[in-house]
## 1
Amino acid sequence: MPDFIVHTIPGSPFGRTVLATLEEKGANYRVAPVAPGGLKTEPHLARQPFGRVPVLEHGTFVLYETQAIVRYLDRVLAGPSLMPADPKSAARMDQVMNINDWYLFQGVNNVITFQRIVLPRLLGGMTDETAIAAAMPKAHQVLNELSHLLGDQPYFAGSAFSLADVMVGAQLDMLSQLPEWAPLTATNANLVAWLWRVTARPSFAATTWERVAAMAQAA
Ligand SMILES: N[C@@H](CCC(=O)N[C@@H](CS)C(=O)NCC(=O)O)C(=O)O
C-alpha cells in the first residue's frame, strides 16, 4: 500500500512538480489518473472543487494546490530539505514559486504549451497560432526575469536545489520542447544551463510524460 496517492493527468506540469518532489524524497506513492474529461465532474470535484490537478492523498488527509502539497511533503518526509533555512534564500524560493503560478503559468504556459502540446495531444484540438503570438511578449518578460533572478547561481534559492527549481523545471521542460524556446532564451543562457541541470536529476527522469502515463496505465 503506497503512502501517498497523487491524482493527476500525465503531462500536467503541476502534477509533475508533486511527483518529482516525492521522487526527490524517495517516497512510496502511486498515480491515480484523472481523465481530462473528468476534471469538472464527480468524483474529482469532491477532491478539487476547482476541477484541477494535482490532488494529494496521505491517508485520510486530502490536499490540493501544488505549493501547499510540496511544502507539506517536504515537511513530513525525511531526506534533504527542499526548503532553505536561510530567510533570504527561502524568500527567493517563495518569490519564484509565485512567479511560476501567477506569471509563467497564467498567460504563458497555459497558452503556449497548451496550444502546442495539450490541445492537440490530449484534447484533439487545433493550435491557435494567434494566441501563441499574443502570449510571446509576456513569455519574454517572464523568462528574462527568471534569468535575472537566477543570475550566476546554480539554483533559484542559491547553491541548493529547492522546491522553486522543481516547480519551474516542470513548467520550462515543456516549453523547452517548442520552437518558441530558442527565441525566448536567446539572451538567457543561464536559464538553459539551469534547465539541463534540473532535468538531468533522477526525479525528473522518473516523471516524464511517458513515465507518468505508464504509471497511470498500471494503476
Ligand atoms: N493552482 C493550481 C493549478 C493547477 C492547474 O492549473 N492544473 C492544470 C493542469 S497543469 C489543470 O488542472 N487544468 C485544468 C483546467 O484548467 O481546467 C495548483 O497549484 O495546483
Note: Residues 87-109 form the longest helix (23 residues).
## 2
Amino acid sequence: MAGIYIHIPFCKKRCTYCDFYTEVAPKLIPTLVDSIVKELYIRKDYLQNEPIHTIYFGGGTPSILSKAQFLKIFETIYSIYSVNKDAEITFEANPDDLTMEFLNSIRTLAFNRISIGIQSFDDEDLKMINRRHSAKQAIDAVKNSQNVGFNNISIDLIYGLPFQTLEKWEKQLNTALNLQIQHVSAYGLTYEEGTELWKQRENGKVKSVDDETMNEMYLLLVKKMKENGFEAYEISNFATQGFRSSHNSSYWKQDSYLGIGPSAHSYNLSSRQWNVASITEYILAIENNTGFFEREELTLFDRYNDYVMVSLRTSEGINLTFLEQKFGSELAMYCFENIKPYIQSNKVSHSDNKLRLNLEGIMISNQILIQLMKV
Ligand SMILES: C[S@@+](CC[C@H](N)C(=O)[O-])C[C@H]1O[C@@H](n2cnc3c(N)ncnc32)[C@H](O)[C@@H]1O
Ligand code: SF4
C-alpha cells in the first residue's frame, strides 16, 4: 500500500503564523501543473508498482486549481498507477474557494474527502491572522461541500490564538460540532521563527496564551470531541467512527509515499527525499530532470526514531512487538527502559505490549519523546 502527496505551493495571501513553503505567484500555476505531471512520469518507478490507497493534494492552496488542472494531474496518476477503488482522495481547501460553482465543477473528479482550513470561526481572530475568509464563509464552505454530496469532511482549527480565552475556544468548538463533519484536526498555535506572527510577538503586539490555558484548551477539546462521538486517534486528530484519515494513518504506519511538487517529501522505507523548496527552481530542474531533490538514506536509528515519534502520538501507541520485529530487541528494550518511569508515574499505559500516552502524558509528550530518541 502506498500514498501519493501533491504539494500545491500557492496562496492568495499569506497567513501570519504559517511557515509552510508557499508563494503568492498565480501566474506560475499552469506551468507548475505541467511540471507536476512531468515529475509524476519521471518518478513513476519510485513506488515500485505498489497499489495506491491514498492521494492527497495539500498546500498551500490546492483549491486554487481549476477542474482542468486537477484533471490533468489525475489522468497522469491513473495512467501510471493502479489506484484502489476505495482509495481515499483528499484535497485541502480554503473556505472562500468552496463556492457552489467551484464545488459543482470538481464534483465529477475522483475526490471523496475535503480538508477545509478554517482555523477559527471568529471574524476578529481571522482578521488578526490575515486569513482570507470570514466566519460565515467558513460555515458556508462546509454546508456547500455537504450540499454537493461530500460526506467525508475534515476541518482544521487552531487553538491558543492571541487573545483567545477558554470561553472563546469553547464557542469555536460548539460551532464546529454543529456542522455535522466527520473529522477535526486541531493544532495548538506555534510561533514559528521568522513568521509575521513571531515578529508581532517580538514587538509586543501580540502575547502568547500561557501554557496552563493552552493545556486547558486541549483538555476541553478532548472532552468535547469525546462527548460528541469523535475518537482521538492522534494527539491533534479526531474522527467519527470509520472516518480516520487513511492519509494520516499511512504516515504513522510507515507506508511508502511519493511526494510531488516543490518542497514535497517522499519516503520509501529505506530513504527519504525532499524536493527543492522554490517554484521557479523546481520548474527548471524538472524541465532538465536534474537536481530537483535531496536524498537521505535512513539508518536503523533514523527509522526507529521516525516510528517512535509518530506512533507515540497515536491512540494505537508504540507497538513493542512491531518494534522488536522491525528494529531488533535491543532498540525495543531501549524504548521500554526509557519509558518505564512514565509508566510508573501513570503518564503512559502499558497493555497488549503497547505503550500509549494518557492525557497527562500527552501534556508532556515532547519531554517523553526526547527520552526515547536514539542518536
Ligand atoms: C499549511 S496549512 C494548509 C491548509 C490551507 N492552506 C489552509 O490554510 O487552510 C495546514 C494546516 O496547518 C496548520 N498550521 C499551520 N501553521 C500553524 C502554526 N504555526 N500553528 C498551528 N497550526 C498551524 C493550520 O491548521 C493549517 O490549516
Ligand atoms: S495557512 Fe494555508 S493559506 Fe495560510 S499561508 Fe499557510 S498554506 Fe497559505
Note: The CA atoms of residues 16 and 290 lie 34 Å apart.
